[in-house]
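Worked problem 6 (solution included).
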Amino acid sequence: MRKNWHKFRQQYLSYSRSDRNAIIIIASLLLFVLIVRGMLKYFVREPAADFSEIKAAIEQWEKESAIDNVQKPLILIPIQFPGLNLMPWIYRPL
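Solution. The predicted structure is:
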């Protein structure tokens, strides 16, 4: 472990001064973001209003409207294709 630290220190000191400053700034920003991200959950407020009744009403309305709005294919003229020998359930939606 001590050799690894010594090797890291030698590699770090081989960079120029501006590179070392950039490494410190980037590491500091990364550490700051990780700390803020972990602490953010303590500062977020819960919503004051209860929208559960409205959400339930919307879900019920969507279920009812989905049943009523089943779309069937529009067939203006029943066309048959005798030369193709298709089953009736294939050419009916055409």
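Discussion: Residues 1-47 form one domain.
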